[in-house]
Design goal:
3-stranded antiparallel beta sheet; C8orf32 fold; about 25% strand; single chain; globular; about 30% helix; 7-stranded mixed beta sheet; 5 helices; alpha+beta; about 200 residues
Length: about 200
């Protein structure tokens, strides 16, 4: 009888445990944490990092159900409120960008706001995604990917990276900061002969 009960419990608990494990987010690999200054970046990304044609295509998403168009002041207010939330801006960054992005996206969804995900991936873990942690002031360098939130405003998009920015910034400004230390392209423009590039996409 004891064996039957044990078997019964295992058949119930194992699928639940497996389901929870499968929902785990991937960790971004931290290559280094240092005090070195970032290379100077431009306010706007290069044409290679954000081609004009690609951006025009992205603007078409503004008129779909994928995004809720917010006012600039609403975006700033949301960012300011979330800054004090330890699940949106963690005491230690720890490569948990996907956890933060997922939490913030869910939080916005609960407010009736449809938002997106800006995903930057570096093949073969050779990237140098250098960003300044807003909690510690340290420079984090990630080698495989970075994952953060993006929302829509009337004029385009605002990236809401609570951990690594002190406020919402335009997509072009955000990509320019990454581009200061890492070659960057849209994922759809990836070519087989590219070497040393990271690729971004909005999902």
């Amino acid at each position: 009888m004891k064996f039957i009960w044990t078997f019964f419990l295992l058949t119930i608990l194992l699928p639940v445990t497996y389901a929870q494990a499968s929902e785990q987010h991937e960790l971004s690999i931290i290559k280094s944490i240092d005090e070195l200054d970032l290379p100077p970046s431009y306010n706007e990304s290069s044409e290679k990092a954000l081609p004009h044609e690609d951006y025009l295509d992205l603007l078409k998403l503004l008129h779909t159900d994928d995004f809720t168009i917010l006012t600039e002041s609403r975006v700033r207010d949301l960012f300011s409120t979330l800054k004090s939330n330890p699940r949106a801006r963690m005491r230690v960054a720890g490569g948990k960008c996907s956890y933060r992005r997922s939490y913030i996206q869910g939080h916005l969804r609960n407010l009736g706001i449809s938002s997106g995900r800006l995903y930057i991936q570096c093949p073969s873990r050779r990237g140098r995604l250098r960003l300044i942690d807003q909690v510690t002031g340290r420079r984090y360098t990630f080698s495989n990917f970075h994952d953060t939130n993006i929302v829509a405003v009337q004029a385009g998009y605002k990236v809401m990276d609570l951990q690594f920015k002190d406020g919402p910034v335009s997509l072009s400004h955000y990509l320019a900061e990454v581009e200061a230390s890492q070659k960057l392209k849209p994922l759809r423009n990836r070519a087989s002969e590219d070497s040393g590039y990271c690729y971004w996409s909005i999902r």
